[in-house]
Amino acid sequence: MPDGSADPLSVGSAENPFYHFSQKTKVIEDSAFNCRAILVNERFWNKIRSSILDLLKDAGPLVIYELGLECGFDMGFQGKTRAKTKGNAIDLFTYYVMMSGWGRFEVSELKLKDATPPRKATVKVYDSFFAKAAKSQTGNPSCFFLSGLLAGLAEGAFSTGYNCLETKCIAAGDDHCEFVLTRRPGD
């Protein structure tokens, strides 16, 4: 920088173990999932979300949920292979999403009991990027992507299918988002 301060491309890299700017490739790299990364701001995410909802009308929330489900499954599966235990995969995920700016996730009861995946778990998300990016116009929970992401993450980490329902949402006026994961019947 002209004033002699630190290179802005290297600032923060020591604080975030997942993302770094590669001087060699000149891109941001995600070391947790061994891929390229981009930064997305609220306006960008809001435009994508609102366009999907506008274009697909009633099917929009389902499409956004399914996108989250696919992403979550990959994250859960890859996290499971990187972590020593399945519980550690959940810890890795909660730290990863916090460092990614998605919010602070608190997970209850999402641990194996006697080698069996839990039937039900609650996930609270504080300061959710996805909920704060867009306010609900209906007053209903609207974090369709996170609902799918959490269901997919649990399925990828535990090899068992889960449904996820958002019961509280910042976008609907609550102080945090809350999701209830339940194992699908027969899984």
From TrEMBL:
Q: What is this protein called in UniProt?
A: 4-vinyl reductase 4VR domain-containing protein
Which residues belong to any copy of the 4-vinyl reductase 4VR domain? 120-183
User: Which Pfam families does this entry report, sorted A to Z?
Assistant: V4R
Domain of life assignment:
Archaea
Entries under PANTHER family matching the protein: DNA-DIRECTED RNA POLYMERASE SUBUNIT I, SLR0144 PROTEIN
